[in-house]
Specification:
Layout: H1 2-16, H2 24-29, E1 47-48, H3 61-69, E2 80-81, H4 84-99, E3 102-104, H5 106-122, E4 127-130, E5 139-146, H6 150-166, E6 169-174, E7 177-186, E8 194-204, E9 209-219, E10 222-230, H7 236-249
Antiparallel strand pairs: 1-8, 2-4, 3-6, 4-5, 5-10, 6-7, 7-8, 8-9, 9-10
Length: 255
């Protein structure tokens, strides 16, 4: 079970390493933190709140780490920070697997490979936390991205969604294994300055599905992504819980 989740996360990273920025210009202004999820086939406009004009203060890496570590998993244990070298190694494994893959539609391959390249160089720059498996094998992950300017964060958030929409349904062939990945954008109440939720469904061969539900939000010069990965389809209550956690990540940690 753990291996299947690792595979799922690797594919999510592969797809979502839009680097939270789809261009080199945006990428230079922000650091990659972690996965959001797959794309939307029937996307709605993101939930928004009025933005402020004052530039946000840069948040220290120690503060970002404290925010991620303050979240708890289904076992009420704090999330464990994933060491940068492990995150980078995970990207490398995904890159190796995807290098010999066949992706349909073909236009998505260029996006996937470009995003992996961006993510590989930024894997050491962000914060990723991972919880223990719950009773049903589900895993909670949370990530934070900080930008040098709020404008860079906003551009990155928008570019991320635009690229995801372009590949809402994909088929990936790696060796003799065929994976289908589809996604749906879900209605989401506003969090921070802009937010959206995605449900991705991954199917490998004739077996069951792996569901990845993510809630993504930006505010205060940050992008937060919180997601669950498991074989049980998440419900509205799960989305509400993820939304609460994403909101917490955008606010200063309690002393």
């Amino acid at each position: 079970m753990k291996k299947s989740f690792v595979t799922s996360c690797a594919l999510a990273v592969t797809l979502l390493l839009t680097g939270c920025g789809g261009s080199n210009e945006a990428a230079s202004d922000a650091r990659f933190s972690a996965p959001s999820d797959a794309a939307s086939s029937a996307a709605e406009a993101p939930s928004t709140k009025p933005t402020t004009t004052a530039p946000p203060e840069l948040v220290s890496k120690a503060e970002l780490e404290a925010r991620v570590a303050s979240l708890t998993d289904a076992l009420d244990a704090p999330l464990q920070i994933v060491p940068p070298q492990e995150a980078e190694a995970g990207v490398a494994r995904a890159e190796e697997a995807m290098g010999s893959s066949t992706i349909h539609p073909e236009k998505c391959r260029e996006m996937v490979m470009h995003n992996m390249e961006l993510g590989r160089t930024r894997a050491t720059g962000g914060l990723l936390g991972m919880g223990a498996s719950d009773d049903e094998g589900g895993v909670l992950l949370a990530a934070l991205l900080d930008g040098s300017t709020d404008d860079a964060v906003e551009r990155g958030f928008t570019m991320d969604r635009e690229q995801l929409k372009a590949c809402s349904s994909m088929t990936i062939l790696i060796g003799e294994s065929t994976t289908t990945l589809t996604s749906e954008e879900l209605p989401q109440d506003p969090i921070g300055e802009q937010s959206y939720a995605l449900l991705a469904i991954e199917k490998v061969g004739p077996g069951g599905a792996v569901y990845t539900l993510s809630v993504n939000a930006r505010g205060n010069g940050l992008i937060a992504s919180v997601q669950t990965v498991g074989t049980v389809e998440p419900d509205g209550a799960a989305q509400d819980q993820l939304a609460d956690l994403a909101a917490q990540l955008l606010e200063p940690s309690k002393p």
